[in-house]
Amino acid sequence: MGIEPTTYSLRVGQRVPIILGIVSALALPFVFLFTRIADNYGKAGNYGVVGNDGSDGTASNGRFFNNWAYLSVVLAETLVMLKTVIPFEQLARLWTVEMSARSLSVRTIDERLRVVDQFTQQTGVNAQVANFEDITLWLASLPSAITRHTYYVHLRAFYHWLVISDRRQDNPMSRVAAPKRPKYRPRPITDEQLRAVLTSPLRPATRTRIMLAAFAGLRVHEIAKIRGQDIDHATGMITVVGKGNKTAVLPVHPIILREAEHYPLRGWWFPSSTCPHTHVERRAVGSSISDAFARAGIKMTSHQLRHYFATALLEAGVDARVVQTLMRHENLQTTALYMNVSVRLQRQALDLLPTMFNDYLF
């Protein structure tokens, strides 16, 4: 999806704001008139004007014109909102600036823009003026619970920004129930699978990427940004720029230090093939890893190597809080999602229970 400036000269969609502006200008005097009349009649009713039959002669008239006043206000608000509707390309640029100012990652920004654009494309509804029925129906059409939850979060951020930036008065997400987030179950690869792919024919760069994911727990976008100066050979430490551009300095596995000997001491380890002054795209890193496993007959994703990193540490008896720091999670609950406790460890835990009653019970 591109957000470059485009020209809007003759297409119907470009004439809509102009037409709505004219309609708004013609309608506003009538809105003002109805509002003033309703206000006057409403006041008369409040002052107790009595009809010939002893009833409130203006009560029904007041209600009638108050209803018209309500409709007039709604019409005015709608016209104002429609008059300020702009093409999504322009809206995306404005939202991107706001998200960048809050130091959100490029990955998060891209994903949010993609979700809103997908909503527009699949529903045919301008996201800026969509109502809660449009949003609910679209979320219900998505294939999985995790997708519904993820897209709900992105849409909630979008409509919150529209409201606080005065581009919309109401927030339709306030009426959309949050989809239940499914319980996350990690799917780490096995030792045998990792050995199989590492002993298969691999490009040196692909091998190193697999090592960084499996033995340092790096995400694909973190692997893409690794530089020679991020590895301190003297102290055995690695500097990782993670989510939200948060930097962490952590001990690095000896395997990674050996891999580092094949790369420059400064500059990108994985420069872009089209623009050497920047690093390779994260998608390219993920694809190279997944393709390597596919050639070995193993279906998996690059993130499962990160699952492996956490699970292997846990199986080795490492304290969960230490694993939390190595995974760079803000809270222990997030780390727990990655830890696939094995049946072997569960049995070992049960064996620690007191055995003094065995003779009486068996």
Could you explain how this protein is built, in words?
With 362 residues, this protein is mainly alpha-helical. It has three domains: 12-83; 88-175, DNA polymerase, domain 1, CATH 1.10.150; 191-347, hpI Integrase, Chain A (Orthogonal Bundle). Helices cover 58% and strands 3% of the residues. It is built from 16 helices and three strands. The chain has helices at 12-46, 59-83, 88-101, 106-123, 132-141, 145-164, 191-198, 204-216, 220-224, 254-260, 282-295, 303-315, 320-327, 332-338, 343-351, 358-361; strands at residues 231-232, 237-241, 247-251. Strands 1-2-3 form a three-stranded antiparallel sheet, with no helix packed on it. Strand 2 (237-241) and strand 3 form a beta hairpin. Helix 3 (88-101) runs antiparallel to helix 4. The chain is globular, with a radius of gyration of 30 Å. 23% of the residues are buried. Residues 1-14 and 35-60 have low confidence and may be disordered.
